[in-house]
Write a structure and sequence with these properties.
With 128 residues, the protein is mostly beta strands. It has a seven-stranded mixed sheet with strand order 6-7-8-9-4-3-10, with no helix packed on it. Strands 1-2-5 form a three-stranded antiparallel sheet, with no helix packed on it. It starts with a strand and ends in a 6-residue tail after the last helix.
Length: 128
């Protein structure tokens, strides 16, 4: 297990998490939001994530089905983590927002064909 920490650009939002690895499993999604923001997903179960501070600085954005809650720092605009639609019992942490770089095992996720890709996740094609 690896202990990690990270947050947004300005430091208003800070978190700690515990994940399996290395290498750390990560998803590279091509959906409209992830491709525009360069978000690289590390899935962290809710119980292994601690928001140290910044809850009051987060701004929420939902689109499409509204199932995912995208959380942006209201000061600097960075999305360091959020609640993904694909993993309702986990947070998705942006690998680019970690304090320390880790060896990543990156898998592609076709977010433009979300339903088909989610079925592949559920079928065990990606073990994150």
């Amino acid at each position: 297990m690896i202990d990690l920490s990270g947050g947004c650009h300005c430091g208003a939002v800070r978190f700690k998490a515990r994940i399996a690895g290395p290498p750390v499993a990560a998803l590279d999604c091509n959906c409209s939001v992830c491709s525009m923001t360069g978000f690289l997903h590390i899935i962290v179960p809710h119980q292994d994530f601690l928001l140290e501070h910044g809850a009051d600085q987060l701004t929420s954005y939902r689109f499409g089905t509204g199932a995912a809650e995208h959380l942006f720092c209201s000061v600097c605009g960075v999305k360091s983590y959020y609640q993904p639609r694909s993993h309702p019992d986990a947070w998705s942490v942006n690998a680019h927002c970690l304090d320390e770089p880790f060896d990543l095992a990156i898998e592609r996720f076709d977010g433009r064909n979300w339903e088909r890709s989610k079925r592949a996740l559920d079928g065990g094609e990606w073990a994150g």
